[in-house]
């Protein structure tokens, strides 16, 4: 085993390649011959997916060598590869990459994957991939080496997420896929989906793109796949595929479109997707060997890049740190939640009610000031359940059950037996205090009172109550069903049982929970408030808004004025005013933003997706300073670095990793930057502004 493999093999959870002989049945009762089925299985259930590390690849290689010997002797007529229940494979085992210290080691990893998988393509017998479950990265690529593929209709995720992390599909994906399904469809899986928040295709969607020859029912998937293999091998079935369009102009146009999309999403800050597009473009005329050599070189460069190391750092945060929230109390202290009350029936409250009934499967009662608002809230929940039914994501019985769980009332008396009440009312301290005073008079002393406030003090909100210890911040992000983050805020008197119940409930809701100290606007809104405030100030001082918007491609998920439009100018203004009240020397309140809110203008962009010139025509400049895009970027990032250091010094969260996890899951900051702190470290801004790095070298960058 080479040095790279030894590094990667450390603590590898080996995905074994179990081979068995199967007699392929024919319709006339005879057999098509002996077929070898290799099942990929790491010995764990579906919660620990199969992945490919050096030891697993070596085991697979040995099985393929044996199959080649048997095929040469005429002992077998075909070979298939499938996965354990619900999982095909989710790609390369990336846990060993931080230990790789040279480009040569990185190239060896790429070469091993190509060498092993190529032994499937080089077999002199028909080969099949039976895609029975989730397939990502190398789990997709192994199937591309096979002559034929079947797809289970219930595959939940089929994707090539490498560009999302900072890699390219480097075990054959950039060459084999476009030559199988055409350049446009291939770029959708390699570029468009990963750069769109790592979107996953379903099995049915992947089949429609052409990656499989048959879409089969899950109940009899393996049986039907073996029947398909038998029919192909015996000649009873001939598989026909549309010819791939290799026209140079068509191919080039698709790649140019993908480059424009990539630049829009990343501003060129992420090298991986641009490298992947180059490889796909070359795949039109490359031989297989040339294509694979290009992937080897790309992986050699990218594995040794800071962007990949930041991407792996971000991936580790989402996969591991998110499951063990820093500072969370002993989960044994958590109380059971059997009924939930929701104060409010507006859009946010209705989204919360839907989430609670879907995840907790307990009765939820919504209240509001009048029956019309209550009815509208319940109707929203019912309509969303109907949409799930239409998409066949729930059964008719389940839909009826969920609808039966949600009720509405103008009275809070129904909260009397609730274990958990959450409010989503107007963001004003007096309103929220009044709500909690009314609720406390009805609920039991153990009932948790959770506020969805985005910026107000949880401690102040609870100070007039008889039991302030059971008030906790429970801040969701909009849209509730999509955004993973849940900021859990401990007030000065919040007790451990309340906090433990909040974390347990958040986990049941399938949210990424982060413990946050009670402080103005908490984590995400505080950092975004500083960022958007600085951007607004720069525009007010004279820099064209177009320049401001272009400055952050590849750094933030969207430009600042687009972000203000998404959250709503009124909410953005309220957040900036709250933060300005707490920290007047650092947080800016734009008078132009206030004018937009006063005029009830919904956003800074028109329906065409372009900046609304009529809105900006009303702006009154406070100066004539015009910065370049680079100057805008540096100034805003310096503000972020300053605020991040202050938050860590104030112990708003336990560590820089929690700030990065919050910005990734709550604001959509890209993986290739690792969130916020690795980017600030990499650009030298951390040390320039604060005198020190946020993370040690090697934590989210190449060591050394």
Give the helix/strand layout.
Layout: H1 3-9, E1 16-25, E2 31-41, H2 54-72, E3 78-83, E4 87-89, H3 103-121, E5 127-131, E6 134-136, H4 138-144, E7 148-152, E8 158-159, H5 162-165, H6 173-181, H7 183-192, H8 203-209, E9 214-216, H9 221-234, H10 248-266, H11 271-282, H12 288-303, H13 306-319, E10 340-343, H14 347-360, E11 364-367, H15 371-390, H16 396-405, E12 406-409, E13 420-423, H17 429-440, E14 448-451, H18 458-462, E15 471-476, E16 485-490, H19 496-508, E17 512-517, H20 524-540, H21 545-550, H22 560-567, H23 569-582, H24 591-598, H25 613-616, H26 629-649, H27 656-667, H28 677-682, H29 685-690
Parallel strand pairs: 2-3, 3-5, 4-6, 5-7, 6-8, 7-9, 10-11, 10-13, 11-12, 13-14, 14-15, 16-17
Antiparallel strand pairs: 1-2, 15-16
Helix pairs in contact: 2-3, 3-12, 4-6, 6-7, 7-10, 7-11, 10-11, 11-12, 14-15, 15-16, 20-22, 20-23, 20-26, 22-23
Structure explained in plain terms:
The protein is of the alpha/beta class and 704 residues long. Helix content is 47%, strand content 12%. It contains 29 helices and 17 strands. Strands 12-11-10-13-14-15-16-17 form an eight-stranded mixed sheet, sandwiched between helices. Helix 4 (138-144) packs across helix 6 (173-181), helix 10 (248-266) packs antiparallel against helix 11 and helix 22 packs across helix 23 (569-582).
List keywords for this structure.
six-stranded mixed sheet, eight-stranded mixed sheet, globular, 29 helices, 12% strand, alpha/beta
């Amino acid at each position: 085993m080479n040095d790279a493999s030894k590094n990667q093999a450390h603590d590898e959870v080996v995905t074994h390649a179990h081979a068995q002989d199967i007699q392929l049945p024919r319709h006339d009762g005879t057999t098509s011959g002996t077929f070898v089925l290799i099942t990929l299985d790491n010995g764990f259930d579906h919660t620990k997916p199969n992945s490919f590390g050096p030891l697993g690849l070596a085991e697979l290689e040995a099985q393929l060598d044996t199959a080649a010997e048997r095929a040469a002797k005429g002992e077998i007529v075909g070979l298939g590869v499938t996965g354990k229940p619900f999982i095909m494979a989710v790609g390369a085992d990336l846990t060993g990459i931080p230990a790789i210290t040279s480009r040569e080691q990185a190239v060896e990893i790429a070469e091993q994957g190509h060498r092993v998988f190529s032994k499937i393509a080089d077999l002199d017998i028909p080969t099949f991939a039976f895609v029975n479950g989730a397939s990502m990265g190398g789990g997709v690529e192994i199937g591309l080496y096979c002559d034929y593929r079947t797809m289970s209709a219930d595959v939940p995720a089929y994707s090539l997420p490498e560009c999302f992390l900072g890699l390219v599909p480097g075990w054959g994906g950039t060459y084999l896929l476009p030559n199988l399904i055409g350049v446009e469809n291939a770029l959708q899986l390699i570029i468009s989906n990963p750069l769109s928040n790592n979107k996953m295709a379903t099995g049915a969607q992947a089949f429609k793109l052409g990656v499989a020859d048959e879409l089969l029912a899950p109940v009899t998937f393996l049986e039907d796949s073996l029947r398909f293999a038998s029919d192909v091998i015996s000649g009873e079935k001939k598989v026909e595929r549309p010819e791939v369009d290799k026209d140079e102009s068509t191919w080039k146009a698709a790649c140019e479109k993908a480059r424009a999309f990539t630049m829009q999403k990343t501003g060129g800050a992420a090298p991986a997707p641009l490298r992947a597009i180059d490889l796909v473009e070359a795949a039109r005329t490359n031989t297989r060997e040339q294509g694979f050599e290009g992937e080897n070189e790309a992986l050699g460069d990218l594995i040794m890049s800071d962007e990949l190391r930041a991407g792996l750092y971000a991936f580790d945060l989402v996969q591991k740190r998110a499951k063990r929230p820093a500072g969370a109390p002993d989960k044994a202290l958590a109380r059971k939640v059997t009924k939930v009350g929701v104060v409010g029936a507006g859009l946010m409250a209705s989204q919360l009610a839907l989430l609670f009934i879907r995840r907790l499967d307990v009765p939820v009662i919504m209240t509001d000031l009048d029956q019309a608002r209550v009815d509208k809230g319940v109707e929203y929940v019912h309509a969303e359940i109907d949409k799930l039914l239409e998409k066949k994501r729930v059964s008719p019985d389940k839909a009826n059950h969920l609808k039966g769980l949600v009720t509405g009332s103008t009275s809070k008396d129904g909260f009397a037996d609730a274990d958990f009440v959450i409010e989503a009312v107007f963001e004003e301290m007096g309103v929220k205090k009044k709500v909690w005073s009314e609720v406390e008079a009805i609920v039991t002393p153990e009932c948790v009172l959770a506020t969805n406030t985005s910026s107000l003090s949880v401690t102040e909100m609870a100070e007039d109550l008889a039991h302030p210890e059971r008030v906790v911040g429970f801040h969701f992000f909009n849209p509730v069903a999509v955004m993973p983050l849940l900021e859990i805020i401990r007030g000065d008197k919040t007790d451990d049982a309340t906090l433990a119940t909040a974390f347990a409930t958040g986990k049941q809701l399938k949210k990424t929970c982060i413990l946050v100290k009670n402080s103005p606007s908490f984590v995400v809104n505080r950092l975004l408030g500083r960022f958007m405030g600085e951007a607004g100030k720069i525009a007010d001082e004279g820099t064209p808004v177009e320049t401001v918007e272009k400055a952050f491609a590849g750094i933030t998920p969207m430009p600042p004025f687009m972000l203000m439009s998404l959250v709503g100018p009124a909410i953005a203004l309220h957040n900036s005013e709250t933060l300005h009240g707490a920290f007047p020397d650092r947080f800016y309140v734009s008078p132009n933003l206030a004018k937009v809110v006063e005029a009830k203008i919904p956003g800074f962009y028109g329906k065409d997706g372009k900046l609304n010139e009529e809105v900006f025509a009303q702006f009154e400049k406070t100066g004539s300073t015009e910065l370049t895009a680079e100057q805008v970027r540096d100034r805003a990032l310096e503000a972020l670095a300053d605020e991040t250091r202050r938050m860590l010094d104030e112990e708003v969260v336990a560590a820089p990793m929690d700030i990065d996890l919050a910005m990734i899951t709550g604001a959509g900051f890209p993986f290739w930057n690792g969130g916020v702190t690795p980017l600030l470290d990499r650009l030298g801004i951390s040390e320039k502004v604060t005198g020190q790095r946020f993370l040690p070298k090697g934590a989210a960058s190449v060591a050394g």
